[in-house]
Amino acid sequence: MFDFMGMMGKVKEAQAKIKEAQAKLVHLTAEGESGAGLVKVFVNGERKILKIQMDDSLLNPQDKEMLTDLIAAATNKAMEAIEQKIKTEMKAATEGMIPSIPGMDLGNLFG
């Protein structure tokens, strides 16, 4: 017989763990770089840019277009890295809470 109350208890427990894990995401950080490290972008788990570092050699007005391309590339790499960290953190927080259903990918549930 299906234990509806037990299932609801597990849902509430999972919600609490997800909320707790989401609160910790602000402390996650990731870095992306481009131009062999000439530009570095740091982001947090809330997908916000924390800092951009660039080598002084790039601060030439003639290289403005290249610099914007490097910043965009580094930002994209940092965002990809933080997405992986967020998925890992959320998966760990909900481990064993959400049943694995064959053919159903719940990997994008949290991001």
UniProtKB/TrEMBL annotation:
<comment type="similarity">
    <text>Belongs to the YbaB/EbfC family.</text>
</comment>
<keyword id="KW-0175">Coiled coil</keyword>
<comment type="function">
    <text>Binds to DNA and alters its conformation. May be involved in regulation of gene expression, nucleoid organization and DNA protection.</text>
</comment>
<dbReference type="InterPro" id="IPR004401">
    <property type="entry name" value="YbaB/EbfC"/>
</dbReference>
<feature type="coiled-coil region">
    <location>
        <begin position="4"/>
        <end position="31"/>
    </location>
</feature>
<keyword id="KW-0963">Cytoplasm</keyword>
<protein>
    <recommendedName>
        <fullName>Nucleoid-associated protein ACFPIK_10075</fullName>
    </recommendedName>
</protein>
<dbReference type="Pfam" id="PF02575">
    <property type="entry name" value="YbaB_DNA_bd"/>
</dbReference>
<dbReference type="InterPro" id="IPR036894">
    <property type="entry name" value="YbaB-like_sf"/>
</dbReference>
<keyword id="KW-0238">DNA-binding</keyword>
<comment type="subunit">
    <text>Homodimer.</text>
</comment>
